[in-house]
Design goal:
Blueprint: H1 3-8, E1 20-24, H2 31-42, E2 48-51, H3 58-66, E3 70-74, H4 77-88, H5 96-104, E4 116-121, H6 124-133, H7 140-144, H8 147-159, E5 167-171, H9 177-191
Helix pairs in contact: 2-9, 4-8
Length: about 200
């Protein structure tokens, strides 16, 4: 059932808005597959919109949410923070949580807080096999010394830190992740989007 049909079965609610869903994870975590599957199963183009975070303003996101649209973004705040920390190496100079808080302060500039962030974290063997299959690395041993491993660790620590709001971690690449993601989105759309203002960092 699409979000629209599900919401139509609920009592009328003029103040119900759309929701922003972020799909996060390191390279080869399965984000694109999940985004495509969720979009396919949730509803039509007027109900669900997949945006490229770097090509749309936060005003675009807010306008879509106010129209009742479910907005899905692959790679959002967590990905940006990991990129910044990895690029600047600031996580090496201070405790991880302190580093996260410092980077997060940069986003307190009209950035929309995701209503739901689904973080995908396959187990290491699954991740390594996918990286090898895509030609990103050649062997398991190469992963140990690769910068991708450091990025993966940053993703995991940040997603589990509690600093980012509304994060649900799907670890070990569960077979049910598509169903779980759909249930999370539809239930949150039904139960929590009533008269809930859009939150900004």
């Amino acid at each position: 059932m699409s979000i629209k049909k599900m919401l139509e079965s609920l009592p009328p609610c003029p103040n119900r808005r759309g929701m922003l869903v972020a799909i996060e994870g390191s390279e080869c975590a399965g984000k694109t597959h999940l985004v495509n599957k969720v979009k396919e199963l949730l509803g039509g183009p007027e109900e669900v919109v997949v945006l490229n975070y770097n090509m749309h303003s936060h005003l675009d996101i807010i306008n879509l949410l106010n129209k009742g649209t479910c907005v899905i973004i692959e790679n959002y705040i967590i990905s940006d923070m990991v990129h910044d920390m990895h690029t600047n190496d600031c996580y090496q100079a201070m405790p991880t949580r302190k580093g996260f808080k410092k980077i997060l302060k940069q986003y307190k500039r009209n950035t929309v807080v995701a209503d739901l962030t689904i973080y995908l974290e396959p187990d290491t063997s699954t991740l390594v096999n996918r990286l090898i299959a895509k030609g990103i690395i050649n062997t398991e041993d190469e992963y140990i010394f690769n910068l991708i491993r450091r990025r993966h660790e940053l993703f995991s620590k940040l997603a589990h830190s509690g600093i980012i709001e509304n994060v649900v971690c799907m670890t070990h690449d569960p077979i049910t992740k598509e169903t779980d993601a759909l249930n999370l989105i539809t239930m949150r759309a039904a139960m929590e989007m009533y008269d809930r203002p859009i939150k900004i960092y």
